[in-house]
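Researcher: Going back to the complex we discussed earlier. I've cleaned up the inputs and rechecked each line, so this should be the final set. Can you rerun the prediction on the complete assembly and write out the structure?
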Amino acid sequence: MSKAIIVELNKKHAIVLAEGGSFIKVPRKSSYKTIGQEIDASGMIQQKLRGFSFLNWKTSLAAAAAALMLFFQFFYPFTGQEVYASVSMEMEPSIEIEINKDLNVVDIQTYNEQGEDVLKSIDNWRGQPITAVTKKIFKLSSAKGFIKPHQEVLIATTITEDISTKEETAIKKHVSTLMQKEAKKQNLEMTSVVLSKKEKMKAAEYGISPGQYAILAAAKQKGHHMTANEVKNKSIRKISEEVGPVKNLFEDSELPVSKRIENKQSGAIGTNEGSKGKLSSADSNLPAKEEIKKPSALRKNNLQKKTKEETGTQIIKKQETETAAEKKDKENAKVKESIKTTASKKEVRTEKEIRNFEQEVAFSPNEKAENNEPKKQNDKKEADTEKKSVRSLPIAETAAAIEEIKAPPSSVLMIEITVNTETEELILSVEAATNVETGEVKLFVEEDAA
Amino acid sequence: MTWLKRTASEESQVYPEPAATPRNISLLKHQKQPAFTNVYEEIQHLTHKLLKYGINYDLVVKKTPSRRNNIKLAAAIARFIARSDKDCEQFIMHGLSSGSSQTKRFAARHKPYIIALIIIQKDGCQHLMEYFPKQEGIFS
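Model: Rerun complete. Updated structure for the full complex:
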């Protein structure tokens, strides 16, 4: 029998010093009367003191956690992967592919029977790259007779995660090029739409795929009366029979749905991101010269720097200034005023001195060294403000071409670079060079017309 | 001159007998004498001393080692510290000064329990000491 001695007594519990040297807190019993009372503590000590055992709560908890981890490792190998984007394919089968950052398929959802039929016949799609899976889908759906040549296909891409613009553009570009290739192979008419996260959520609320939601929204904007159920139950072919070609729904209309739409007909490429919400098709691609004229409206802005990176078109603007003629006139007027004021301050100058001073201000030092021509010739140059030096060059020679431009030192060039994606040529158009120090503008006259 | 002689009673009155001197005992025997007569006094003393260091029994219960080996180790540490006042102060203020890092960590973890043991050891609470494991070996 082991004994213990009561050290502290409270209403509900007692603290005892048990044999073996351990202080134990035990519930109070009626037999515990005073401090220093000796009690039997055989049960207490066994409860409190124990040797090393493998079955204590810490080890059991760790074992349980390890078991859980192993379970998830084997049965849910892709639970840790985030869905970065989803690609909704609207043809006869309606399929939505969810992909991760590495463009591998995380999940596939189907929105009709045909989609389910196609998905059943694809094996081991999880974790495979999207290229392989889309190839299989297109092959199977053509084999099963769901798609035929010249049939319309709508591809709706949604970026679900908040990722950097670089990653976003990379994913969009990859998906669009992939789909173009596949559409080219199958000889399909492909329209691709980019949807926002909110629009995807709305589509989920309606119980339709993002592609179907895009069609619904576009049809509503065009004035066609359609409901979500109708879009859900009908295939894209039937909708195009009723409403007209689907690609026409997205043409020339400002959709809240689409940020950018690339309309392709069997591999024809054309993009127009600068339109911001406006839609454009490959058929309406402008020739190179017409494209150059477009940004001329932007010249009205004074000293603004804008850079836009787009997949098809690149516009680089370093600085925009007022037209040179206006600026020179203003400067001359200022100079005259300053001369007048100095004269009024009893600084007498001869007429010759004033003319010389005017000429000095009117031309930059470099320009003055090059051109010692009279003022009339400069006025002729000012009249040719609309002319630009335009060149069409292969992409590789761009840097060399920019270096060739003879601008005065310490000046900012305003260059517009447009890419013709079909011919892979750059169209450089150099408008003016603004001297940073003096603020003067040197105009460039047309060198080679494209 | 007999009349000048004092009787024994008279003698005792003039020169009283010296009081009984205390019993001569050795210093070691004196040190081993129990300071407390019963367990209750020891417990009261322990409680009072622990409170002085801001320790109550709840904390001691919490910091009591759960394994027998660890209790033995704590008792050995307490015995070692209780030998000198300097070591006690050092331990209470800063922790264990000598020993391996593992022992230091152990002493820091179970400090209130070890302090209770030191008090029991140092102040000679004989009744309470019976409840602790006995010294084993020469250096333990």
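Model: Worth noting: Chain B touches chain A through 27 residues (CB under 8 Å).
Researcher: Good, that matches what I expected from the previous run.
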